[in-house]
Amino acid sequence: MAQKGLMSPTEVELLIAQGQTLVIHDGFVLQLGEWIDKHPGGRLAILHMVGRDATDEITVYHSARSLQMMKQYRIGRVQLPWQNLEPPIQSASYRDSIVPKKPSPVVTQGHKKRRSIDATALGLLKPLRTSIHSPTDGAFILPRTTSGRRASATALSSDPKKQPVKKDVAVEEKVRAQYATSMEQKEIAQGKLEWPALDQTTQQSIKEEYRMLHEEIKNKGLYQCNYSAYGRESIRYAMLFGTFLFLLSKEWYLTSAVALGLFWQQIMFTAHDAGHRGITGRFVPDTLIGAFIADFCCGLSIGWWKSSHNVHHLITNMPEHDPDIQNIPLFSTSPTYMKSIFSTFYNFQFVWDKAADVLVPYQKYTYYPIMAVARFNLYILSWLHLLSPRATQLGSAWWTRHVELVFMAGYWALFGYALVWCTLPTWPIRIGFVLISHMITMILHVQITLSHWGMPTSDLGPAESFPQRQLRTTMDVECPAWMDFLHGGLQFQAVHHLFPRVPRHNLRECQTLVRRFCERTQLKYQCYGFVEGNGIVLGRLDEVGRMVDMMVKCQEHMAATGESGLH
After folding, report:
1. Which pLDDT band holds residue 160 (cuts at 50, 70, 90)?
2. What angle do CA 212, 215, 218 make, to 5 degrees?
3. More confident site: 522 or 117
4. Structural domains of the chain in order of their starting residue, each with its CATH number
5. Helices (H), 454-506
6. Angle between helices 227-249 and 253-275 (to 10 degrees)
7. Three-state SS string across 201-256, please?
């Protein structure tokens, strides 16, 4: 193979099959095997782009200096437009290499052996509406009684003619997986109906418009940070922290906890900016700013956040790959999780179990209470990250882990020891202070989940362009400009996903340009009020919860009657 010569798709595919890390950028093949362990954004951000034309993703995520540096990794050219390959990390073979595939179960009923299940033969499934904005009206039909009414699972189980049979886990898993797949297919069909066609011409046109929009944003200077805005914000942060200290000195302990919680909620917006290099545009100073705010001021690892957030931005709302929506058994925003998926982020099999059967049907009720205590889970995830091998796989950014450990230790020395243990006088006040200060930050947790948890999780395939997927899986929140301080840029998540390095104080101006882009390309710009957006999220949680509830009733019916649909 001649260096920098034209490479065929077959040649690229063969090299990837041999284990090479090849990514297409701007018509060139990049060999990133030597760079992947040095990538400050982590290995997974590259692995999910292997075999794909990642021109848009790479361009909007990197500075001009980084893009220039990438030229040294070019090993050839390809003819455009490029037809994306499936990245090996997203393939079934990768999953099976970590979690060996179970052999096809032989299901026994009486003395008959059958190897497959047709859910339609069960007589228990009916079509389910897949609208993400309205709850389902049911998924399973139980047999009719002689009166013509639907029998309940309880009634069926008490039928003296029907003796309870041993629960067949293999059958339940098959039925559940088949049902989940049918729901996925319905959402895919709906997505293809509501969004621009996935043919090469249409998607290429969207890409070209998106690249022109990117140039327009650069030419308007919207990548330049508004430092005066940070000056004003720093005053607000100082006032909140000063209020906390003042109330604490007056021994208004629980009231001071409110001020501290608001301080945490507000200052984390700047940590988010730093994580995207949206303040100085340079890795070292932005990393230090982010670590000081997230680790030292808030006790949360900026390294953990970046490792998951970079992946989230690239494969948004993909159940198997996006860690931001992998919350089983507490929450499920997708029927896909009923199939017990393998997470490529955690290298872990999320098994759908009895806990999920019990908790997910009630998730619309548990959403806000769990958001109120979500910060405690972030502490755990932060420490698990810093103590894991992933925190050391940053190449030239190896030093960030040590900085974070020092800052995190400083946070717990000040908050955990000096404040909670030494300053607060009694255990009831200590517990109350910790709970109140952490519950206040539920505003932030709702803001973070709002933009994606109500959106589709279907994968329309490798032909879908980067900008279309981001707009399809992300919503923005409509609010007046004077409320921007409360949302901290998180109200512009769709705009942010299209241009992650744009400083958040410029996102409102970008929003106008994105609206025009959507009009030109026939893409939908999904923007709702805060209350309406919360309703959409709760509707999605309720929709998936009803799916699970119907599935559980089906399983109870099967266990009570011995009916398995294997006739």
Report:
1. very low
2. 155
3. 522
4. 5-90 (3.10.120.10), 107-188 (no CATH), 225-316+353-459 (no CATH)
5. 466-472, 484-487, 493-498
6. 160
7. HHHHHHHHHHHHHHHHHHHCCCCCCCHHHHHHHHHHHHHHHHHHHHHHHCCCHHHH
